[in-house]
Design a protein that fits this description.
The complex is a heterotrimer of chains A (291), B (258) and C (357). Chain A has eleven helices and four strands, in the order H-H-H-H-E-E-E-H-H-H-H-E-H-H-H. In chain A, strands 1-4 form a two-stranded antiparallel sheet. Chain A has a two-stranded antiparallel ribbon with strand order 2-3. Chain A has 291 residues and is mainly α. Helices cover 72% and strands 4% of the residues of chain A. In chain A, a hairpin with a 2-residue loop joins strand 2 and strand 3. The longest helix of chain A is centred in the N-terminal third of the chain and has 29 residues. Chain B has 258 residues and is α/β, with parallel strands linked by helices. Chain B has two domains: 121 residues, Rossmann fold (3-Layer(aba) Sandwich), CATH 3.40.50; 89 residues, Rossmann fold, CATH 3.40.50.300. In chain B, the strands form two sheets. Chain B has a six-stranded mixed β-sheet, sandwiched between helices. In chain B, strand 4 and strand 5 form a beta hairpin. The longest helix of chain B has 18 residues. Chain C has one domain: ABC transporter involved in vitamin B12 uptake, BtuC (Orthogonal Bundle), CATH 1.10.3470. At the A-C interface, helix 4, helix 9 and helix 11 of A face helix 6, helix 11 and helix 13 of C.
Chain lengths: 291, 258, 357
C-alpha cells in the first residue's frame, strides 16, 4: 500500500476517534468530568445496531437511528442517576463513579450478550472505489463524510441556537449561567444526550471497519479518543475534531512504517510531546490562576 | 538614613497590550512602614506579584538590599528576604496552624529526607526547635493555643493573622502585606495596627502594605504611595497625601471605600 | 495514658495503623500454621500484600502530593519484570530464597524509582487532568515496551533485545524475558512474611516522610502551590521526590507480586490495574493510609467472596463501587459529619485559648 492509502485509512479511523472525542470534550467542557464510561456507550450502540441490523435485518439507517436513541436515553439515565448527585463532590469521586459505570456497562453486556465476539456486518456494502489510482473503501468515505457533517452541524448548533449558547454559558460559569435564567440541569442532560448519541454513531462506524464486537470493544477506542480530546485541547470542539483526525493518522502511519506492536506507545508518546510543548493541547486555552 | 531594603525603578508590566502597572518607583527603608493605596483595579496587587516574580516584569528593575532581583524566581526571592501575604487568603488548609508556620522554616532546616525516615537525632533536634520557634511567632498574635488546629477551620481573622506569622517565619527583610485588615472589625483593625508596629520594632524589617482601611494606613505608615490606573499619582507622608488634591479627586473624593 | 493523650492525632493514627497491621499479620500467620485457611485464601495473601503496598504508594501520590496518576501499574510492571528477572538470574548465585527475594524487591524498587524519576521530570510540570492523562499515556507506553523486551543470561552475561528474540546466545544460554510471553517458570519465592515486612517499611517511610519538613513541603504545595513558592518551597523538587519514592514502592510491590506467580506477562499491568489501585485509594480516603490498607484488602477479597454469585460478581462489584461513591458523597451525610467535626474543632479552639502552651 502507498503512503496515501495509509493516510486515507488513518483519516477514516481518525474520523471515528474525532466523533468519540467530541462527546468526551463536550461533557468535559460542561461538567468538568472525565466520563470514563463514554467508551462503553459506544459498545452499547454497536450492540444495538448489531442486533437490529445483522440479527433482525432492520433497515441499516433505522438501525443506526435506533442505536442513537437507545444511547441517548442511556446517556441521560447515567447522568441523572450517577453523576448528577455528585455535582458538588470532588472530581476524583466523580471519576471513580464513571469508572464504576464503565464496569457496570461492560459486565451487563457480558451477561446479556456473552464474551463471544459478534461479527458485525458493515452497514453499507463492503466495496471500494478507485479514485485516481487510490483504492478507498465505502466505509472509509462514509466515516469521513459523517464526521465532517457532524462537525458542521455541531458547530452551528453550539454557535447559533439558544440551547447551544446555553451550553457554552454553562461551561464557562455554572453559577452565572443559572443566575441568567439558564436551566443548568437540562443543559447538562442535553450535553450528555448529544455526546451519547454521537457515541452510537461512532460505535457503528468503528464496528463496520473492525467487525469484532465484544463487551470491551469500546474501552481502548474510548481511551484513545479521550487522548485525542486532550491532544486537541479538552473542552474545545474544533480541538477534538483535529485531535481525533491527527491521532488516527499517526496511529495508522505508525502501524504501517514502524511497528504494530508499539503503535499505541507511539500515539501516547506524541500526546506527551504535544502536552509538554503546549500544556493545554493544540487548540486549548491556557488558564492562569489569579493571585 | 537607614539602609534601603527595596528599590524599584520604572517597574512595569503589560497584559495583552494594557499596561497594568507603568513606571512604578518606590524606596522602602529598614524599619519603615510604607503604604500602597489606590482604587480597586489600580494595580496594587500586581505590584506585589511583580515584586515576588509571580509575574515577570516587562520593564524596569527591582533591587532588594541593593541587589537586582532580575534573575531570581519566586522561591529564590523568599530566600533573598521577601515574604508576603495574599489578598485572597492562601493557607495550607489541611495542615495545622503550627505546621503552616513550620513549613515556612523549611529553608533554615537542614536534616535530609533519609534522616527524617530513620528519625536520626538531627531530625528530633531541628523539629523541636522549629516547633518552639513557631509557637513563639504565633504568640505575637496570641495564637499559640490554636497550634494544633487545622488552618482551614480557623475563623477568618485568625487566618489573616496566620498568613502574617507564616511570612515572618521565613525571616524576611521585606514583608509585603496585601490588605491585612480586610474583613476585620474596627477593634480587630486597631489591634492589628498595633501588632504591625510591634513586628517592625521586634524584627527591624521593612514593611510594604496594601490597605483600603484609611485609619490603618494613615495611622501607621511612614510614607504612602498612591496608585491609579497603574500609575503613581502621588507620594508622601500621610499628612501630605490627605491634603493632596490629585489624590482626593482620583480616589478619596469619589469612592471612599475603594 | 498521659503520654497517649500528649501525642497528637496524627501520631495516634500512625501507631494504630502499625498495631492493626501487625495484629492482622500475627492472626493470619497463626491460622496459616494451624491450617485454618483455605487454599484459595492462602494464595491471595501475597497479592493482597502487593496491592496494599500499591495502594499506599499511590496514596502518597494522590493523597499526600495531590496529583492524580492513572499509570501506576506501569511502575508495578517495571518492578515486577526487573525484580523477577533478578531473582531468576540469581537462582544459583544466591541459594537462600529469602535473601534472593529481598534482592529482587530492591532491584525492582530501584528500577521503578529510576523510571519514575525520568517520567516525573516532564509529567510533574503539568497540572490536574492533563497530568492524569499523561501518566495514563506513560503507563500504556511502559506496557507496550515491556511487552517487547527479550532478555537472557548466557555464561554470566545479560543479553537484551527489543522487538526480536535474536539474543545470539550459546546453547547453554537461558532465556528469561520473552516479549509478549513475558517470564515463565518462575520459582514463586514470594512469602506472606515478606509482604508484611514490605507493608511495614512502606508505612514507616510514608508516615516519617509526612511528619518531616519534606512531607510538610509536599502537602503545602498540594494545598496551595503559589503560597508554597512564596515561602521558598521549590514545588517541583519536592513533587519529584515524592513521585520517585511512590514509584519505588510500586516497583517493590511489583517485584513481590511477580515472584508470587509461575508466569508473568506485561499486559497484566494495564490501565485496568492502575484504576483498580486508584479505586482502593479513593475508597480508603485520600491521605488515609489505614483506609487504603483496608480498601485494598477488602476489594481484593470481594470478588472472591462474591464467587457464589458467579457471573454476577463483577456486576456486583461495579454496583457496590457506584453505591459507595454516591453514599459517601451524599450532601446530607456529609453535613452531619461536618457538624460533628466542627463541634470538635470548636471545642479544641475553646480549650486552646485557655491552655498554657
Amino acid at each position: 500500500m502507498s503512503f496515501l492509502n495509509y493516510l486515507v485509512s488513518g483519516l477514516s479511523l481518525g474520523s471515528v476517534y474525532a466523533i468519540i472525542a467530541l462527546g468526551y470534550t463536550m461533557v468535559y467542557g460542561i461538567a468538568k468530568m472525565l466520563n470514563f464510561a463514554h467508551g462503553d456507550v459506544i459498545m452499547v450502540g454497536a450492540y444495538i445496531c448489531f442486533f437490529a441490523f445483522t440479527r433482525y435485518g432492520l433497515n441499516p439507517f433505522l438501525s443506526v437511528v435506533l442505536a442513537m436513541l437507545v444511547c441517548t436515553c442511556l446517556g441521560i439515565v447515567i447522568e441523572k442517576l450517577a453523576y448528577k448527585p455528585l455535582r458538588a463532590a470532588p472530581s476524583l469521586a466523580v471519576l471513580i463513579t464513571a469508572i464504576g459505570v464503565s464496569y457496570l456497562l461492560q459486565n451487563l453486556a457480558l451477561l446479556f450478550w456473552s464474551s463471544n465476539p459478534k461479527v458485525f456486518n458493515p452497514i453499507i456494502p463492503n466495496k471500494s472505489i478507485n479514485i485516481g489510482g487510490l483504492t478507498v473503501s465505502y466505509i472509509t468515505i462514509l466515516a469521513i463524510v459523517v464526521c465532517v457533517a457532524i462537525m458542521i452541524v455541531l458547530t452551528t448548533f453550539i454557535n447559533k441556537t439558544k440551547l447551544g449558547k446555553a451550553m457554552r454559558a454553562v461551561s464557562e460559569d455554572k453559577g452565572a449561567a443559572q443566575l441568567m435564567g439558564i436551566d443548568v440541569n437540562t443543559t447538562i442532560s442535553v450535553t450528555f444526550a448529544i455526546g451519547s448519541g454521537l457515541a452510537a454513531i461512532a460505535g457503528v462506524l468503528l464496528c463496520s471497519a473492525y467487525p469484532n464486537l465484544t463487551p470491551t470493544t469500546g474501552s481502548m477506542p474510548g481511551i484513545k479518543a479521550f487522548t485525542a480530546a486532550v491532544f486537541g485541547g479538552i473542552g474545545s470542539i474544533p480541538g477534538a475534531f483535529l485531535g481525533g483526525l491527527l491521532l488516527g493518522i499517526i496511529e495508522n502511519l505508525a502501524k504501517a512504517y514502524i511497528s504494530t506492536q508499539i503503535s499505541d506507545a507511539i500515539v501516547f508518546g506524541v500526546l506527551i510531546i504535544v502536552l509538554l510543548v503546549k500544556p493545554a493541547g493544540l487548540l486549548g486555552k491556557p488558564t492562569r490562576e489569579k493571585v | 538614613m537607614s539602609n534601603v531594603v527595596l528599590k524599584c525603578e520604572n517597574l512595569g508590566i503589560v497584559f495583552g497590550g494594557l499596561a497594568a502597572v507603568n513606571d512604578f518607583d518606590i524606596e522602602v527603608h529598614e524599619r519603615e512602614i510604607a503604604g500602597l493605596i489606590g482604587p480597586n483595579g489600580a494595580g496594587k496587587t500586581t505590584v506585589f506579584n511583580l515584586l515576588t516574580k509571580v509575574y515577570e516584569p516587562t520593564s524596569g528593575e527591582i533591587f532588594l538590599n541593593g541587589e537586582s532581583t532580575a534573575k531570581k524566581t519566586t522561591v529564590q526571592l523568599s530566600k533573598a528576604g521577601i515574604a508576603r501575604t495574599f489578598q485572597n487568603i492562601r493557607l495550607f488548609n489541611k495542615l495545622t496552624v503550627a505546621e503552616n508556620v513550620m513549613t515556612a522554616m523549611n529553608q533554615s532546616m537542614k536534616y535530609s529526607l533519609l534522616e527524617a525516615v530513620l528519625r536520626l537525632p538531627r531530625y528530633w533536634k531541628e523539629e523541636k526547635a522549629a516547633r518552639e520557634k513557631a509557637l513563639e511567632l504565633l504568640s505575637i498574635f496570641d495564637m499559640q493555643g490554636m497550634a494544633d488546629v487545622r488552618a482551614g477551620s480557623l475563623p477568618y481573622g485568625a487566618q489573616r493573622r496566620l498568613e502574617i506569622v507564616r511570612a515572618l517565619a521565613t525571616e524576611p527583610s521585606l514583608l509585603l502585606l496585601d490588605e491585612p485588615a480586610a474583613g476585620m472589625n474596627p477593634a480587630e483593625t486597631a489591634e492589628l495596627m498595633e501588632n504591625i508596629g510591634r513586628i517592625r520594632d521586634k524584627f527591624g524589617i521593612a514593611i510594604l502594605l496594601i490597605e483600603h482601611d484609611m485609619s490603618l494606613v494613615m495611622g501607621i505608615c511612614d510614607q504612602i504611595t498612591v496608585l491609579n490606573f497603574g500609575q503613581v499619582i502621588a507620594r508622601g507622608t500621610p499628612a501630605e497625601i490627605q491634603s493632596n488634591p490629585v489624590v482626593i479627586e482620583a480616589y478619596l473624593g469619589k469612592h471612599k471605600e475603594g | 495514658m498521659n503520654r497517649l493523650k500528649a501525642m497528637n492525632r496524627t501520631t495516634r493514627t500512625n501507631y494504630l495503623t502499625y498495631i492493626l497491621v501487625i495484629a492482622a499479620y500475627v492472626i493470619l500467620e497463626v491460622m496459616l500454621k494451624g491450617g485454618g485457611l483455605k487454599a484459595a485464601t492462602k494464595g491471595m495473601l501475597v497479592p493482597i500484600c502487593a496491592y496494599i503496598v500499591m495502594a499506599l504508594s499511590l496514596n502518597l501520590t494522590v493523597g499526600v502530593m495531590g496529583e492524580l496518576s492513572l499509570g501506576h501499574a506501569g511502575f508495578m510492571s517495571v518492578g515486577a519484570f526487573t525484580g523477577t528477572a533478578a531473582t531468576m538470574c540469581l537462582v544459583d548465585a544466591v541459594p537462600n530464597t529469602a535473601v534472593r527475594l529481598c534482592i529482587g524487591i530492591i532491584v525492582g524498587a530501584i528500577a521503578a524509582a529510576i523510571v519514575g524519576f525520568l517520567i516525573g521530570i516532564p509529567v510533574l510540570r503539568l497540572r490536574g487532568d492533563y497530568l492524569a492523562i499523561v501518566t495514563l499515556a506513560f503507563g500504556e507506553i511502559i506496557k507496550s515496551l515491556v511487552g517487547n523486551v527479550y532478555m537472557g543470561v548466557d555464561q554470566g552475561h545479560l543479553k537484551f533485545s527489543m522487538f526480536t528474540n535474536e539474543l545470539n546466545m550459546s546453547p547453554e544460554g537461558k532465556i528469561i524475558i520473552e516479549g509478549a510471553m513475558g517470564i515463565r517458570s518462575i520459582p514463586k519465592i514470594a512469602t506472606f512474611t515478606a509482604g508484611f515486612v514490605l507493608i511495614m517499611i512502606s508505612l514507616i517511610v510514608i508516615f516519617h516522610m509526612v511528619g518531616s519538613r519534606s512531607g510538610r513541603a509536599i502537602m503545602a504545595v498540594r494545598d496551595n502551590y503559589i503560597a508554597a513558592e512564596s515561602i521558598g518551597i521549590p514545588a517541583f523538587r519536592y513533587k519529584i521526590t515524592a513521585f520517585t519514592i511512590s514509584a519505588a514502592m510500586a516497583g517493590a510491590a511489583g517485584a513481590l507480586f511477580g515472584n508470587n506467580y509461575s508466569s508473568l506477562i506485561a499486559s497484566k499491568f494495564n490501565i485496568d490495574t492502575s484504576i483498580l489501585i486508584l479505586v482502593f485509594v479513593v475508597l480508603g480516603g485520600q491521605g488515609n493510609m489505614l483506609g487504603s490498607i483496608i480498601a485494598a484488602a477488602a476489594l481484593t477479597i470481594l470478588p472472591e467472596a462474591l464467587r457464589s454469585f458467579a457471573d454476577y460478581r463483577m456486576l456486583m462489584y461495579a454496583v457496590i463501587l457506584i453505591a459507595v461513591m454516591l453514599v459517601s458523597n451524599n450532601q446530607k451525610i456529609k453535613d452531619i459529619l461536618k457538624n460533628a467535626a466542627e463541634k470538635r474543632t470548636g471545642k479544641k479552639l475553646a480549650e486552646g485559648g485557655a491552655s498554657d502552651e
